[in-house]
Amino acid sequence: MSLQKPTKLTKDEFVKTATMFYLDVALEKKYSDFLREQIAKLQQQLSGIVTKNGVQQYVSEEKEALENLTSLLNISSERFKRIVSMLRIARGHQFDTEWTLSTVRTHMLDDSVWMDDICDLLINGAKLPKYQELIPSFYLENFKIDITTIGRLANPDDIRRLIKRSIEGRYNNQIGDSYLKKIRDYIIDFCGREGFTTPMVNQINSITNHTFSLTLNYNNQPWILIDITYAITTSSGQSRFAREVKGIADKVRQFNENNGDNKKIVYINIMDGAGWVARSTDLDKIISYTPYVLNLNNLSRITDIINFYA
After folding, report:
1. Domains, the chain
2. Which of 10, 118, 132, 227 is the most core-located residue (most Cβ within 10 A)?
């Protein structure tokens, strides 16, 4: 008995079944515990930053001092790095790339002048003429450590908000990694149970010159190519990915047309997250370019697709 060819999800079906926010209970507990520990740690460590010597000591003792101080002062790390770049150029540095906060701290520890300059900036930059002449007050006004700043330390909720803001990017990356692992594990487990070759993880495909999240091979040749993406926010990277999908789909189609009666390659995108639903135009393109687009809530369809094309 021949198998029926699996149908393709429509955009409406995809949107209605999409997981807008993926939940990982273990990861949520990890971050909850981390926040509780960090709040207590920061309240104790930052109590001494009322003086320049206190700030210098804190920078010397704590690896993530600049991350914590910029969070406490409501200064984005990106803006802080731009200002450091400006100061480097003003000091005649040969500028090739921007320093990370960790690199800034290293230079502060190695150079007392840098230590003084950055501490002055953090403690009283909003009022110092040498910074007022270079930095708009709209940005500079948060560069101050005063009674209001210290007062934030007494409120755990304020500290919690500051810490969460500084680690949001890390959390988003890890929840995306967790989603990716769940999808991979499901497909790899299915292949193992059904006797298919174990899928290859992050394998570069020579036909498309693209690294796929999973590649199922048949007789050592690529057979099913799978991209897995999770997006909680929107970005221009989604448009770039949509263009990549079109290029991949075109190359796969051309390969299949030139490959006669031999086994065809099947290209699948597994996607989720509120960011993809919000990026409607890019989602439209990916669905139109790709033979199959799935999400977590209809992932069981992948078994029908693998069995049909086996």
Report:
1. 11-23+171-309 (3.40.50), 25-169 (no CATH)
2. 118
